[in-house]
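User: Hey, quick favor. My workstation is busy. Could you predict this chain's structure for me?
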Amino acid sequence: MLTMIDEAVSGPSMPAGTLTVPESWLTAREIIRRRVLHEVDAHNAALADGDGVSFVGLVQPTDTESRLNAQLKTRQDGTRRLVDAEKQYQAAVRAFERNGFLMFVGGRQVEELDEVVEFAGDAEVSFLKLIALVGG
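Assistant: No problem, here it is.
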């Protein structure tokens, strides 16, 4: 089990969810991918259930996407406009590469996306956000 924690230089730590991971190691890129997919899936499921919740995740949709989603909450066919998981993942990768956030696993900083991170049993993964992460 990986416990995700969001931290910011200007505020308190916030729990960001948990991921069940059968492996004993993953790359940083894969941890980010699984976290983002989990967040987007949860958000899109809430929308499908009729909840008009705002997206809260590692990175936020761009201002343009947010405005469009607010204006066009439903499409012409009546379905809700969903957050695009692949766009969110790519934004999170760009943010990591530009030092928009730092990642720590078990208190150790992970510096490269393809760095292999080993963990035994449950582990805490902290994401220290250094800048606003709208659109990555």
